[in-house]
Amino acid sequence: MPSPSKADVQAVLAWLKRTGTKSTRDGMARYAIPSDKAFGVPVGALRKYAKSLGPSHELAAALWDTGWYEARMLAAFVDEPESVTPAQMDRWCRDFDSWAICDTVCFHLFDRTPHAWRKVEQWCGRRDEFVKRAAFALLASLTVHDKRAGEEQFVQGLVLIERAANDERNFVKKSVNWALRCIGKRSPALNTAAVEVSRRLADSSEAAARWVGKDALRELTSAAVVQRLSRRRGAKVAGAA
Questions:
Q1: Confidence of residue 231 (pLDDT cuts 50, 70, 90)
Q2: What HEC string does the chain produce?
């Protein structure tokens, strides 16, 4: 696809301006999303508009560079994972300024790139709050979308989770907890491993780690999760017979 013109980008921004509302923008503050450079467009409308735009790596880059919140959300929806480079991932990650843009980019784009696992490993040790959050948001996203990953990769992810669980910063500990819960729901074996980690964290002397562990335990040992994993195990056994 040819590089987007300035007019193409301006047309997108004009649509965002027309579609945004003050009430949506004002509501963003309740969810800790900065609104100083936002139009106030609901995510559902952005998803629908992104489909009309179609995939374009070039347009995604241009939209990201505008700095507008919704333009960056659109960038995550229209970019082409196979064209995303490690350098781009690092650059965008440094721009993350809210959990919303961080999680959206990780869940809808970064986890589909061939560099995703490497970035989990790299970012989990970074100090910046949203870069570190991205590591675990990406790990959580991979549990859903990487169907080919082996269980050992997620077991290694549990090692990273346990190591980071004492980070008291809200947006970090919540993403660590998210990743732990997601790994524990991927398979019966990973549930057992994740529950073991959760129990150790629940007994920690660190407040953040205790919260991560106890909160994860409630879900991972719940009847709903246990039953769902049991059905999955039964289906797998039946399929092998």
A1: confident
A2: CCCCCHHHHHHHHHHHHHHCCHHHHHHHHHHCCCCCCCCCCCHHHHHHHHHHHCCCHHHHHHHHHHCCHHHHHHHHHHCCHHHCCHHHHHHHHHHCCCHHHHHHHHHHCHHHCCCHHHHHHHHCCCCCHHHHHHHHHHHHHHHHHCCCCCHHHHHHHHHHHHHHCCCCCHHHHHHHHHHHHHHHCCCHHHHHHHHHHHHHHHCCCCHHHHHHHHHHHHHHCCHHHHHHHHHHHHHHHHHHC
pLDDT in tens, 48-95: 999 999 999 999 999 999 999 999 999 999 999 999 999 999 999 999
Note whether residue 41 is domain-resident: yes
Tally of structural domains, the chain: 1
Distance CA(135)–CA(102), nearest Å, equals 10
Residue 221 and residue 194: Cα distance in Å, rounded? 10
pLDDT tens, 100-150?
Answer: 999 999 999 999 999 999 999 999 999 999 999 999 999 999 999 999 999
- Per-residue pLDDT of 10-53, as tens digits, reads 999 999 999 999 999 999 989 999 999 999 999 999 999 999 99
- Is 54 in contact with 78 (CB distance < 8 Å)? yes
Does residue 89 belong to any structural domain of this protein?
no
Is residue 13, in this structure, part of any structural domain at all? yes
Q: How many CB atoms lie within 10 A of CB 107?
A: 18
Structural domain containing residue 13: 7-79
The CA distance from 78 to 60, in Å, is 6
